[in-house]
Amino acid sequence: MTAIRLFLLLIKASLKSRMQYKFNFIFSTLMAACIQLSEFLMVALVMMRFGEIKGWSLYEVSYLYGVMMLAKAIYRTLASDVHHLEKYLVSGDLDAILIRPVPVLLALMTQNSRLLIAEIAQGLLLLVVSMRALLQSGQIGWSAIPYTVFIILTGAVILFAVGLATAAAGFWLTRIEALQNMTEDASQTAVRYPLSLYPKWLQGALLVVVPVAFVNYIPSLFILRHQGGAGMLLGTMGVAVAALWLAMRIWQIGLSRYQSTGS
Which PROSITE patterns does this entry report, sorted A to Z (predicted)? Predict the structure, then answer.
């Protein structure tokens, strides 16, 4: 409980420091909103013209998109600089974090925290619109709401685990931007759409190597299409726990081998 209170206190302090520059905060939020909105609108316009994609309707794809957007927003809000570990390794700034009287990972997670208002608002909007339509059509019931909250939280854990494992690779590789483009950016973009769109080898990679398909696609098969039973949700939770454990192990091993820049 002490660690949790400390984490929340550091997050609050980091967010307050960000809010000192109000114009920059508002401008960056608006720009992020425009980028996210334009990305989804391109997909929506194509689907409105040609209909379903591999049997998935626009509302179902909106659901996948919204879950991923919210899970990613939670991860990036609560652990922003895990994604930016490379700059700490290259500049030597990680040395300053090592001497703080708090765990290194906790200190890193609370550096430069920012509340992703645009992503959270758009993710919620997509979920509200899509789930309202699916409820009205009878495709889902009211139980889909707590299930959705559950998979957003487990999805945030999975994304954090993937991000942490990728960042920890920096202790050996130092430069990890190209790796992050594959394990985080590209993979997360891919699973905003049904996994059935992709070839078998890519589906396997998104299920096993970088298990981001468990953020939204796999549990949505149960929530939206009633496939696989509740075991799909239990399996998703199991993947989240296993991925987090493995990522923490990789982080601990990598941190133990870190060599200071001497700066």
Answer: PROKAR_LIPOPROTEIN
Indicate the burial class of 124 (C-beta count within 10 angstroms; 0-12, 13-18, 19 or more): middle
pLDDT per position as a tens digit, 99-121: 877 788 888 888 877 777 778 88
Looking at the DSSP bridge assignments, the partners of residue 53 are 56
Of 14-18, 169-173, 180-184, 236-240, the range with the lowest mean pLDDT is 14-18
Tokens, residue 11:
């997050």
Longest dimension (CA), the chain: 63
pLDDT tens, 77-87?
Answer: 888 888 888 88
- Average of per-residue pLDDT values in the chain: 84
In the chain, what are the domain boundaries?
2-256
Structural contact between residues 224 and 140, judged by C-beta atoms closer than 8 angstroms: yes
Residue partners of 254: CB distance under 8 A and separation at least 6? 168, 169, 170, 171, 172
For residue 57, which phi and psi values (nearest 5 degrees)?
-80, 170
CB 118 within 8 A of CB 30: yes
- In angstroms, the CA 191 to CA 222 distance is 16
Query: What SS3 state is found at 210?
Result: coil
Give the burial string for 221-249 (b: 16+ CB within 10 Å, else e): ebbbeeeeeeebbebbbebbeebbeebee
